[in-house]
Amino acid sequence: MPSISTKNRARSLANRAVREQNALEERVVCPDCQRESDKRLIVQEQYLCPYCGHHFPVGAYFRLNSVLDDGSMKELDEDLGAADPLQFPDYPKKLEAASARSGLKEAVVTAAGSIGGYKCVVGVMDSRFMMGSMGTVVGEKITRAVEYAASHRLPLILFCASGGARMQEGILSLMQMAKTSAAISRFSEKGLLYVSVLTHPTTGGVTASFASLGDIILAEPGALIGFAGQRVIEDTIHQKLPEGFQRAEFQEAHGFVDQVVPRNQMRQTLIRILTLHQKGVVSGRGAKRSETPGNGRETRLSGAEKLLIARHWKRPGIQDYIDGLFTEFFECRGDRQSREDMAILGGVALYHGVPVTVIGTRKGKTLEEKMKCNFGMPGPEGYRKALRLMKQAEKFHRPVITFIDTTGAYPGVEAEEKGQGEAIARNLMEMSSLKVPVISVVTGEGNSGGALALGVADRVLMQENAVYAILSPEGFASILWKDASRSGEACEAMKMTAKDLLGLGVIDGIVPEPEGGAHEDPAKAVEMLEEALYPQFAALMKQSGSRLKESRYRKFREMGRP
């Protein structure tokens, strides 16, 4: 039975949330669809328009009430109020007015509590208080919340909503960008989780500091997110901005946001993320399996025939293996630099109850999907996304499992302009020194450095009808013999089959496939892969990070050594 103090905390939070609701007019007109709704219906829908889903602004306490477990909230630094460090003219009056209007002492509320039973620290910025601008006290409260989370080793979740730095506090306001970012850096060094949630609006100095530094960055639909405001941009460069510029969906497409999540799904999404960042233990399931991957069945298929099977349009892809092998998969998007590359699919999932990072090349099934995925040919943004996720896996001590099925890296002009070679090289270097288990599986084609960029692993498994080569047979024949029609001959000369590569020491095991190929029975193919994958996973989980790093170096050091 909840204690009296727990009941009081829950009642206090609910009362404050209700006071925020009372500020709404009885009838509300949606700015997007122009339809009118009753206030009670808007509140019931978590301040979403019941007709078009427009997200109305919400107060800090309503937000806390909607995500925290009942009775779990303990407000932090509740008595820390606004300051006037520069004695700016009329600023105290503005602060008083903002406080009277919002019921807040400053533009952020921080608290310790729990979400889905997981203890965490949550901060919520409130745009009703001087547009959520970041002055010295906002910076101080956020920094204290980060330090509290670090000292108690708790996940940190910050809901951002800000017009940027607070002009009335001048350079001291600007310094809060460095202060909060430094606090996040120290927090991250402890291997702790930080989730940043970008709500409308998140701009200026907040965007250019702690808001953009989350391990996982979420955004609410339609939220304005950017550094320079649209009016400033248009006045400066005298250029008309595109439709949807700087909105959450724009930022997701350009690689800066992992997922856009509607408010009524936010609590459940946070619970999933918190679940995936708990340390798991390898289960005993499958204990009777062989400790070494199989050598595959002897087949009479030629390299050219295997290539046709590897390229079969019904062959299982990365999504099929994610669905069949893992649970609770949470996709992470973007390279945090310029674009979301759909040719690489990656995220966090549970494998036998253990959080893992899963990354793979994605070709797509339908023509529309294939075009969006660039037919499985990643650009530099895709490789940088993969590396971001692998380095994040190392931070949280998560194993990495990659799936390779690509004709190669995209060879276009834009890819070269953005550093395709550097992106691949960076992956090769960083993967070689990861201090977590890395397993790669070649499930279809594995061509060129575009495949190897996901293949520097402790164990490399290969399905029996997959192929793995320096480049496509057509390209090989064209370069070497200046005759692409000799691709069939190239398939044999290149030694690209699983049996060939096992003999060369390039791979560590062959994964059998259903009769006729994985496309004939995808579910069975997943089951057969699991039989080979799990023993390798369980064995690598027992090794230290330093041993994994050294063994991986030695493994590749010996390849092709005279």
What does this entry show, briefly?
This protein has 562 residues and is of the alpha/beta class. The chain has 22 helices and 18 strands. Helix 12 (318-325) crosses helix 21 and helix 14 runs parallel beside helix 16 (420-432).
Notes on the structure:
- The chain is an alpha/beta fold and 562 residues long.
- The protein contains 22 helices and 18 strands.
- Strands 3, 4, 5, 6, 7, 8, 9 and 10 form an 8-stranded mixed sheet that branches.
- α1 crosses α3, α5 packs parallel to α6 and α12 packs across α21.
- The longest helix is centred in the N-terminal third of the chain and has 20 residues.
- It is elongated.
- The termini are far apart.
- The relative contact order is 0.07.
- About 1% of the residues have low confidence.
**Can you count the beta strands?**
18
Rg for CA atoms: 27 Å
- Helical/strand content category: alpha/beta
Unreliably modeled segments: 286-291
- The helical percent reads 40-55%
Quaternary status:
single chain
Strand residues, percent: 15-25%
Mean pLDDT, rounded to whole units? Answer: 93
Write down the overall geometry. Answer: elongated
Note the gap between the termini. Answer: 72 Å
Largest sheet: 8 strands, mixed
